[in-house]
Every structure is written in structure tokens, then in C-alpha cells.
Specification:
The structure is a homodimer of 503-residue chains. Chain A contains 16 helices and 27 strands. In chain A, the strands form 9 sheets. Chain A has a 5-stranded parallel β-sheet, covered by helices on one side. In chain A, α2 runs parallel beside α8. Chains A and B meet through α3, β8, α4, α5 and α6 of A and α3, β8, α4, α5 and α6 of B.
Chain lengths: 503, 503
Amino acid sequence: MKEPLKGVTRRDFLQVLGSVAGSGSVYAAMSGLGLAAAPAAASNLPAVGDSIGKGVRVGIIGAGISGLAAAYELRKRGYECTVIEANGRAGGRSLTLRGGDAVVETGGIQHARWDRETQLYANMGPARIPYHHKTVLNYCREFGVPLEVFVNENRAAFVHDSHAFAGKPQENRYIVHSTRGMVAELLAKAVNRKALDDVLTAEDVEKLLTLLKGYGELDKDYIYRGGGRAGYAVTPGAGAVAGTQHQRPALADLLRSEFVRSNINFTEEWNQAATMLQPVGGMDKIVQGFLRQVGDLVIYNAPVQEIRKTGERARIVYKHDGQSRVLDVDFAIITIPIPALARIDTDFSATHREAMQSCRYTQAAKIAFQADRRFWEEDARIYGGISWTDQGIGQIWYPSGGLMEKKGILVGAYIRDDSVGASYARMSYAERIESALADGEKIHPGYRQLVKNGVAVCWPNMPYAQGGWAVWTAAARKNHYPTLTRPDGPLYLAGDQVSHVPG
Amino acid sequence: MKEPLKGVTRRDFLQVLGSVAGSGSVYAAMSGLGLAAAPAAASNLPAVGDSIGKGVRVGIIGAGISGLAAAYELRKRGYECTVIEANGRAGGRSLTLRGGDAVVETGGIQHARWDRETQLYANMGPARIPYHHKTVLNYCREFGVPLEVFVNENRAAFVHDSHAFAGKPQENRYIVHSTRGMVAELLAKAVNRKALDDVLTAEDVEKLLTLLKGYGELDKDYIYRGGGRAGYAVTPGAGAVAGTQHQRPALADLLRSEFVRSNINFTEEWNQAATMLQPVGGMDKIVQGFLRQVGDLVIYNAPVQEIRKTGERARIVYKHDGQSRVLDVDFAIITIPIPALARIDTDFSATHREAMQSCRYTQAAKIAFQADRRFWEEDARIYGGISWTDQGIGQIWYPSGGLMEKKGILVGAYIRDDSVGASYARMSYAERIESALADGEKIHPGYRQLVKNGVAVCWPNMPYAQGGWAVWTAAARKNHYPTLTRPDGPLYLAGDQVSHVPG
């Protein structure tokens, strides 16, 4: 029998784990598919190269970004790590598909029948990195993973709303700036009616009216009539072509639009605002960066069957080469999504189990197509960015890289709505593709002829993910989330499920 | 004596010239430093390869983008072109500097003492291409000039306003979203006070209030209290770090801010909204693309001295190798800026001269520095984009390319204000640099130690440009601009000065 772990061993481990996301918080560890925001100070860390981890064995379940980052940081400090991965590949939900790749869902297998060219890939999981996700960006710098700008907002992309604008796709800039113009015009009207004179000084009023004229592109009478920002029916050009502006849409149309009510704000959120970044050539370039460091620690095709507490220590039982194998460790770091974890026989306490049950995973799905011609660039001048629709596909993503190349991979659906996602997960592959084509046709006429070889990944059907990303109700975040940020004896939960920045 | 030009010759020439910007308008030709927007239809063009231009001689003055594009399109149709360029390089105002390059102003010479690495360049003239500038983008595709995203708007960059926010630089997102929150809050208040009940139905009111809550990130009482979009004092992260939002700024501060009054809208304008693009490695990659096609037609170091009408035809007198030389042509296309043209002895009609005098050129300037460490990325998480200040430098541009490289070139001033530009143009080189360093220090503390080897290009001092870009008053645009879009006998004006999309 091994001797008990010393207090200092446990404390050191907590510190190092905390460092992985550069955070003071222990479970900062490997959060948010490795994409967690990190506070500036990562203080009091055991220095790299210390023999602090010597003789301490750590079992890491899941070779996603979280697991790999944990292995990397722990090994640097002398810990003896083993990473156990159920799939035949690392990366977890950070899945980049290329021509020839296979996707195995519980219901069967799909192949990406795409040409093999550098720019022809699709990130079927996470695909964009906010500028403030320091930890992952620092790893990119450290591992030499080149980054480029990810276009999250494109004023040339489309807004399609079946209940507004006669159901016809509109340029994003037209909707965004008509909304802004309408808001500015209404406020100017109220101010001019002296409706706010008790909260605004005379000087405020004057300055605010000037501001609103600029902000909403209002005319001298404080009326929004459409404007350059909203785009042109006839674009201005050289010589005599001065351009013809769009007329403003009807107020009722704007108010009826689901996009105006919600997604108009999406690209301004904390995690979505410019500058967004992506690794050149696919998100898995980050995975490959980690694998260059700790690839030798990973055991692939090794689904975990049991996670046990053995006194202070832990035992991981996994299947490999048709046999059950046992890994005894001092600590286990569990990075796999809670819904996948729930299918494993574990010794978690009742409190931890209850907390896990309060964490919901999204039913996210993505569908990608090859296009032999970048029709979105050539025909619609859309370079990267997203078209939004109230149809099931939700969004169409245009690639931010490989601009002006001949071919491209289009993300023809990014489904974040759980009921739609669940419905796609029940469809056959052919039905998913057909549904995405029908929706895409509403945004890009002729779409069926322009795209081909769709691949649909429904994350709830991915056997070792069982969902997209963690979602917490406010109550669960308050009552149960803190439990999961604490270890359960030798068992440590990690990943986006223990971060305030999931997904 | 040559026989008179046939009517068909002149008509064909007009058509081809018109095609250069893909426009139906004759003078669409070479507008906007080649960056003109082009309408969809370029109809009735003489086909490429026609011998329509055979035996017709064209003299093109200026090897900027306009002149090169004209030469390229005309030669394809058989015209015999000569391009006469005063400088020792092509590109005109499309000037990309790299280590070792010299900049010759009327007042003297500067050298860019920068390291020679791919990402170490500065576009001292035009630097960004809107997605709708089809013509130049099509040339990029045709010539194989790779493009990447140009970050025009970055929520992480700074807003510095000496009269607001205690004079301290603020994150762009904080100012942008506090403004939006304030506008939404005030409108919600007015609506709740029934101040707009005569223009809004009860249903409108309900929908508008919902919209405003989302749009302005308002709380349940329709108050803006700061929010995630505006950024965090303590950023949210993994484990227990939920984040602390910024408090909203005072309304008076927002109303006092020059940025909020004007530049907050800049990146939403027709020519500035996402997706903006740039050639990978410098704007002069486009110039090089043209030179691969028509470089053999260019005579360098050939300042034009006279432009004459010789009956229906034209004569260009230029200096080369210390001698005056004569080029007799059927048509002359004059692409050089009007202020530079004004210094040449020409036979333009009184009407044309008067029209030219009504066109003003900006006193634009740019200053670029090398940084041995990309402190904006490493310290402030700024990847591309622009910081705005009310100080003389106006803007600081962070490179959109070479992200995560060690070194970078920063544009430490982009001066669009004419009085500031004129003042910089009068300074010595050392004074310009000192002034830019002092301003930059207010945005990035320690700036003086972080940047080095500044190069300042004041466009009014560039001998063959004499200014930045054409600006028209509304009256001049109405009364005089049309004159310049018409030929004066055999003399055809081209360039951004005859476009509705200058600069």
C-alpha cells in the first residue's frame, strides 16, 4: 500500500492546475475548450522545471484542448501524466474536417468527400478565438501556430427573416443601420418634444441632438432616410455615378424582425467582438501544437469505463485493444463533457452528481459543404462573416481564410437552437443535408447547384461528447456550479463546464 | 501631318477607358487610386484582343494604379501606350515602405531604417480596400495577389479624448457600447413616458422596448448599467472568476467626447465597413501585379513639363536623362493629382482650369515606426485596428497582418485634419517624429521606448503628388466636377479626382 499524499503535494497540484488557464482559480485549468479568458496575474506558480511533481501520477481523461493543456503544464513541472482518449484522434470538440476525414456518430459514419487543398477545411466545433482569450493565444505564440483574423461581422452578408422585409434576404448593413437610424430618429423626436428635459440640461440636449445626427445618419430635420452606411441600390462610382441610396425600411418591419430583436447584438458581445482570430488552416493546428509537446502521453481509442476513488487516490479503468486496463493515479483530471461522463461508472459523491445533473449541454450542430466556386465572394462580395436566418440552419459561415481562392468550404448550418439541434440529430444524414440545402436556397438562390458533399455533425450524437457546450441556468450557476469547481477527493473536473466562459 | 481621327476611333477609346473601372462612365477609367466602386454592368465593351486600338497612340501620365490600369486595359485592345512617370518607382500614392527605402519630399530625404522582414512594411498611402471595390479586387484575383482581412474596427483598441473620460484612454468597446446603452436608455425612458404614443402603436411600443433592452443591454428597468459588451474591469474566466463589469460612464462625458460625436461612426461608413481587405505584404503587391503586365510601357524618372493640344491630338513633353523629350499621341490620359498637374504647362481650356481650381486636395500625412516587440498585441491584446485620439496624430494603426510575429510596423499617425497636416508638413522630420511620439505616449505609456526609426510622409510635400486625395464641396461637385469628367479635346483626366469615391 502506498503512503498517504502529503499536504504539500496536494497544494502544489492545485497551484499547477490553476496555472493552466493562467488563473488563480484551481479549476481555471483547462476551461472552455482551452479558450478561457485568463486574468492578468498567474502568481505564486511553482516554476517550470521544478521537481515538484516528481513521482506524482496524474490521469487525464480526454485529449481535448483542456486535457492536453493540463498534461503540458503538469509535465513541465515533473508530474507523470497519462492522457486517456476515447477517440482515435485528439482535439475533442475541436474538430477540423478535411477531404477524406470520417465522422463517426452513434448512428453511423460520414465521410467528407472534399478536395484536398489547404483552404478546404471546416471547423465543426469551436472556430473563433476572442482577442482576450490570452491563454490559448499564448499557446499559439509558444507553439508557432499562425493566426489570422476571423471575420465575425460582415456588413455585406445577409439577414434573412421570413417574417420581415417581405421574407427576402437583406444586406446586413441595411438592417443594422436602419435600426440605428430608427432608434436615433425616435430619440431625437422625443428630445425635440422636450420629453426628457428633466434629465437633460439644455447643453445636453444640444450635444445629444448633434450626436444623434451623426449616430443615426439623420438629416437636418432629424429624420432617417436611409444613407450610405445602409448601402446603395445603385452603388456610387467613378465619373457621373453618384449612387442611389436605399429607402429606409418600414418601422414595423424592423420591429417584426427576429434578427433586430436579438442577433443584431451578437457580434458585439464580450466573446464575439472584434478582433476575433483563428489559426491559419484550421483549429486543429492548436491541437497539433500541443501534440508536438505531449503527444507521447496520449493513449488513443481508450474509452474510460470506470473512475474510482481508492482512498486518497484514483483508479481509471479503460478499454484498449479489446481489454480492460487499469491506471492507478494520485489525481484524476476529468475533461470530458458531463453528458459523456454520466455514461461512465464513477465514484463521484452525491453532491457532485447532483451538481452535474444541473448542467445542460447544447444540442449544437454544424453542416459544411464544398463549393467549387466561391460564389459568395464572386457574386455577393462577401469575404468571411456570417449570414443570419430565422430558418433552421440559423447561420451560414463564409470562410475568413483562403480569400479569392477558387474553391471554399462553407458552413451551411450552425445550429444553436436546442429544439432544432435535437431535430437534426434525429434525421438521417441525407435529411440533414436536404434540410440545409432548402434553407440555404432562401439566402443564396441556386444554392443547390453551388454547394456539394455536405457533412453534418450533430454534437449530441458524437459518442464521447454527447453535446455542444455547457449551459447553466442562473440558479444552477449559483447553487451547483461552485461544487464542480471543487475537487471530489482525488477527482478534478475540468473543461468548459467549469468556466464562466463556456462554448 | 497625320490625318484626322475618325469618329469611331474616338468612340472606341471612350468605351475602353470607361471599362477600366468597369463603369459605363467614360472617366470611370482609373478612379480612386484604382479603388473605385464599379457598377455591375460593364456593357458594350470592345472585346479584348480586338484590333480596335491598332495604330492609336495613348500617352498616360502617371504610373499610379490609375495609369497602370488604363495601360493594361488599353493594351489588351491593341492601343499603343506609353506611361510617363516622374518618380523612380510606380504606384504613385500607393506607397509601401520597407527597410532601406528612401522617401523624397520637396524638403529632403528620409530612410526607413527598419529591419527587413516580410511583415515589416507600412502602407503610407491607401491601405484598405472595401469589399465592394470590385474592380481592384478583380485585378487582385486576376494577378494572383493574395488578400487578407484588414481590421478597421477593433473593440480592444483605444479611444483617447483629452476632454472626456478624465483624458485617459478607454477601450473602444466601453465607449461604443456605453453610447449605445445611453441612447437606448433615453429612448426607452421617453417611450415609457408615452412621449411617442402618437407615432407608435401599442404593439410598436412593446416590441420597441424589447428591442431596446437587447440593443442597449438595458436591465429590467430599462437602465444601462454597463455590461459585458462594454468590457470588464475584471475579466470573467474559469472557476470562480465571474468577472466585474465596468460602471457606465457619465452621460456628460459621452456627450463631451469628440469620438462619440464623429469617429464612432467611421467604421460603419460605406467605404469603411467590414469586410475590409488588404493585399498580404503591402499595397504595392497590386502595383507589382500591374507591372508584371505593363511594366515595359513605363518610362521612369520622367517628369512631365508640358501637355499640349496639337489639333485633335496631344503632345507630352517630359524630361528624361537630363533632356527634354517629346511624345506625340492621339490621346493623353492624365492621372496625376490636380495640384501636381497645376505645376505643369498645359493647354487645358479655361473651363477645365477653373474646374480644377475648385478641387481641393487633403494635407494628409502618415508616420510609421518599427517596434521590436508587438506590445499592442502582447500587452493590450490589440490585433489590428485603430486607436483614435483627438491629438494631432489622429490615429494609431496596428498591423492586421503578421499577427503574433515578434516585430511589427505601427502607423503612429494618420493625419486627415488639414490644419494639422499642414503643420506637420512645415516641421522638420525630427519634429514630426517627436510630436508623434509625444501623442502616442498618451495612449501607450512607455511608447517612446517601444517604437523607433519613425518615417513621416507628408503628402503635400511629395513633389509629384502635392496632396492626399481629392475633396469636393457640394457646390464644386455640382458645378465643376462634371467638367472634369468630360475630355478637353484629346486630354482626359483620370484618377480619384474624377470619382465619387475618392481617397
